[in-house]
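Hello, quick one for you while I still have it in my head. I'm working through a protein record and want to make sense of it properly. Would you mind checking whether the tokens look sensible for this chain? I owe you a coffee for this, so here goes:
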Amino acid sequence: MTVLDVHRDEEALTFTIVAEFDAPPARVWQVWADARQLERWWGPPTWPATFDRHEFRPGGRSAYHMTGPDGTKAHGWFAFTLLDEPQRLEFDDGFADQHGEPVTTMEPTHGIVTFEAVGDRTRMTVLSRFTSIDQLQEMAKMGMEEGLRLAIGQIDGVLAEPS
């Protein structure tokens, strides 16, 4: 398992997960930049993702859905706010309707992903920032920690294949 640390900080309204991979930062960056690679790990193994749109650029948007074992679809979106290849990316992340449009029932989170060379490996830190303690606790109840841990655990398989 590539995940090194998981930390939920209710006072700071953050959730952080740290993982390391046997690849340089530029290669790990590609698992975010390329929609086909992102599909192979975003979401836990039993809820694979399909990206219908992936505009990986500042101001760009992504629309995706994850399909559960019973065929249930959960829709989401990203809005990229910063890309500093291959060190850092930032994006807003929220739930969407069946057309990929943001829903207003829950505020989006803000994600900050950093990539740091550690010898010939990469340490990737994913920090999610929440707008309230209620939002953080609701996402925790929905299985965010375990889901993200399982999702990131799939990146090694993606990295093992040619990009």
